[in-house]
Give the backbone structure.
Amino acid sequence: MSTIVTLPDQTTAKLPKRNYINNEHGLMSWLLTGDHKRIAMLYLVSITFFFLLGGFFAGMVRLELLTPQGDLMSADTYNKMFTMHGIVMIFLFLVPSVPATLGNFVLPIMIGAKDLAFPKINLLSWYLYMAGGIFTIAALVLGGVDTGWTFTTPLSTHYLNTHVVTTATAIFVAGFSSIFTGLNFIVTIHRMRAPGMTWFRLPLFIWSQYAASILMVLGTPVLAISIVLVALERTIGIGVFDPTKGGDPLLFQHLFWFYSHPAVYIMILPGMGVISEVISTFSRKRVFGYTAVAFSSVAIALFGMFVWAHHMFIMGISNYSALVFSLLSMLVAVPSAIKVFNWGFTMQKGSITFETPMLYAMGFLGLFAIGGVTGIFLAALGMDIMLTETYFIVAHFHFVMVGGMLMAFLSGLHFWWPKMTGRMYPESLSKFAAVVTFVGFVLTFFPQFLVGYLGMPRRYHAYPAEYQVLNVLSTAGATVLGIGYMLPILYLGWSLKYGAIAGNNPWQATGLEWQIQSPPLTENFVEIPIVEQEAYDYEWLAHQKEVTTVG
Amino acid sequence: MANDATTSMHSEVVAPHDVHEHPWYQRHHFETAEQQREAASFGMWLFLLTEIMFFGGLFMAYLLYRNWYYDAFVSGSNTLSLFLGTLNTVVLITSSFTMACGVWAAETRKKGMLLLFLGITLFLGFVFLGIKGIEYKEKFDLNHVPGAHFDISEFVNPPAHSHEKPLPVDMANRTQIYFSLYFAMTGIHALHMIIGIGILFVLLYKAWQGVYTTGYVQPIENFGLYWHLVDIVWIFLFPLLYLINRH
Ligand SMILES: [Cu+2]
């Protein structure tokens, strides 16, 4: 059942006198804050910076690939470009994107808490993230690193003379930032829920953050130890991965992918949570199959822990384990498909409107579906042996990570922007940007499926002339995509000062975060609310204006 | 869902914020001191879980290579000093006991006892590191440190009095993997000890100020958990590294 909701009249809305932004002033009040909302804003600024940095490297890669010859840069420089692109985008943008910005901001409010359980550790996470970023920039300024983001041994330990240890330190430190974020979220979700906020009344965003946090806590330490061993091998010459001393490089692959495959779900699960919120809000309907969607997040996290060796089908693992890992990898598609179908059924007979967050969410659905289905191609052993290390795989994970996750991030950012800043962004311009992003994305990455299927290998700066047409299309698409990403940065910045006042609940959404003022008070709630309604209860929203509180 | 107890309690005991008498250490975003204590303890256990995963990678590597190069691991293991290893195990277990006593002292609000037990724990931590240092120095003297100066002659031609089985050259080379893991595992363990000792200094100072003997025992409890974990890791490392095939 969908409820007809009339959106509030924003012309009468006023900015609240006191809120978390004007509560304290000065740079130090931001740098030493314990407020999860301020820390979220610190993260937002810093991940935007690193997104632009990573985007610059992507641009250089696409520019080099405009022509078949390696004419813009040398092969070594090209290697550094795609390595830095991968490291910056994965560790400094995608992993913290939704959890550390949107999650940090809305998670405590959604469950009716005044803050995360450990505000100081939350701030520490941001400083660790920044330290990781500084080490990355240091590696870059000192001359870059060209191992690929995967640090493959023995290439990274014996055959390269670039700044591997500096970069390893960066990833180690940034890894602890994400461990602490995950830990903080898990404890907060367990221990800080408002009275009446039972597990099955939690918004699905919380469930997906919870599942991703479990992966952060379990997976990231394994990445940490594997890069510590790489660094020890480079510096003092221990031989755990060194074949000349009896070590096995394949062990590094196992340890690295034990984290780095679940990392894919660390990146995508929070995005899926955003999509659940957005689709429900703009269909004015409870998410179809709430329990199934909630448990599918946990199932993705669980299955995701046991598929890592699908990155090693061509590396000499045994046929039997390849068979098992191939099957398990395909199984991950089941909970993912449960989500996609449930989102579809949520929209069925809903009162759908296409505000900007919804447009991005629509983009997510299409692109994530393609990314997911090509993932099944790659999980199949025979196909994988042919397609891995080609542009097909590059296109696959960009469809999931950029078409999926980045679309979800932008969707969530537009969705919660009125709550975070108290102001609206320009509606038609943002719709335009959403369409430009979608078109640019498809133009950039769809040709890469084709060129990969035709056999163009990844990670080379030059290629045979017959692949040029598709590469030119891809580079042209990247330009469009670049414009699509610059637009939100510009108009969101503009809206901080000139945007229309949003009011408490511009979308008529049901989450607790929409029942308080925008931007919220530093303590979120004057009185802790008592939750008596299920998640996504639009009837409750239509009929009850006041939230009951403790006291 | 242990949380339900606290939440339902809340909806019944409806008291506005300013009426409550909160203990001084309760932070504003917690509703009760009990909630804060549970959160801190839960967070600490999760952190210990990440530590287990961290060491888990090393144990995985150990398991693999011990199966592949068993003879090399036996020979490498037999060069370690059983006496020093056992002594260190005893030192560390004792320190865990004194740490547990420290937690008890904080809970029963005995400041003098708390200072005493934290002090003994700190001292034993230093003893452990000292003994570890002696062992490391021995490795350097015997050229058992992986790298350019690693010497396998002792494993290929063991001295007659040692009753060691001579290893073929390629297996003798694999002792380098054993010592790589020995240094990586005990080194990272020792690093955890050093961090623990650093925290102990802070705790001692604050305990001397009387911070932990007025009901605020969480930092002491959590540090106790950390110290026990470091101890438990050693209890796994000791047999795996020292006792592979002792007669
Ligand atoms: Cu994978």
User: Anything to note?
Assistant: Chain A touches chain B through 54 residues (CB under 8 Å). Residues A 261, 264, 310-311 surround copper (II) ion (CB under 6 Å). Chain A has one domain: 29-550.
